[in-house]
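Researcher: Here's a chain I'd like modeled. Treat it as a single chain, no partners, no ligands.
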Amino acid sequence: MINFNSVEEEIIMDTFFKSKEDVIKVADFLPYPFIITEIETFDSSFESLFFNENLIQEFGYTTKEIPDVDTWYELLYPDENYRNEIRETWNGKLLEAISKNEQVIKIKARLKPKDKDEKWYEIKTFFFDNFFVLAFVDINNEVILQQKLSQINLNNERMLSILGHDLRNPIANLTAISSLAAENDISNEEFKEMVKIIHQESNLLLEMIETILNWTKLNFNTVTVTPVTIDYNKLVNGIIDFYSSMIQNKHIAVNVDLDNFHSKECDPEIMTVIIRNLLSNAIKFTPEYGSISFYNQNNVLIVEDSGVGMSAEKINSINADEYVSTYGTENEKGIGIGLQLVKRFAAMVDCKIDFESIPEKGTKVKILF
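Model: Modeled as a single isolated chain. Structure tokens:
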């Protein structure tokens, strides 16, 4: 990261009191991208404009391609909402600086260089009357690192919450039920009912542990992708067998029609995690005597259920990577990260997950290869 030091700032500020030509001479010798311009008002066309060589190389545009303020914003901030936000922020800071008799403002923003991905920059603006010098300092690596650290902290807090609460509940239930069975004289029917509950709680616990392990692998970057040809009929039916007791307890009909499904090679372990989480979710939100189907349309693997469905707001929260844990139709408890696992693992094997749902009618999840 390049920072201005006091000597450089003094040189630049001194030149404000001389001429535009003096500033241009200085700008081409300094090692960061510069714009030098005179503007009548915040939103008017440039009176005169200079891009130093570093700016042309950094952003890929010349003054011929960007003759005015509007074009600069449209090209460097292609998203209209973000463009308006940055423009409002910059103008607001400028007005504040003028009111305080200051001549320097700074903002951080994502800019889109020509034919390149967006990057983060700190934009330092020096001005005197209508004479402006804008310097762009690349802070992309620092911002990305900060975002990653924030995400790691969020994940750590989430895992601590799960370990401290969500895992404790099923373990406590198992302890209580087993103690009751061991210390009391119970009938065969009561014993069978307790065994059923223990089985359900054990499955829930195993599923939570599996989810946490996969989440940990993702966040420690220990997942490797090994594409092979997959027999999806065999893979899906094996996962269904794992959840057979939960399916039978709710009398759910599960149908698999993947004989003609031919996708590109994929990692079987990752695909197992994806389908397992989708099936678990479908079972959780499908009431008794409902149905779950696996089938394909135009090389798209679809998991469809006749469950309670989701609102548009819930789908938006999933797409926004928000962790929301909801109880199932028989108060089944999840830990709120299963669908986030699905999305992140899918991205690792170049798949996209698409959700379609109607409340009270069911959900259709598409795996697009």
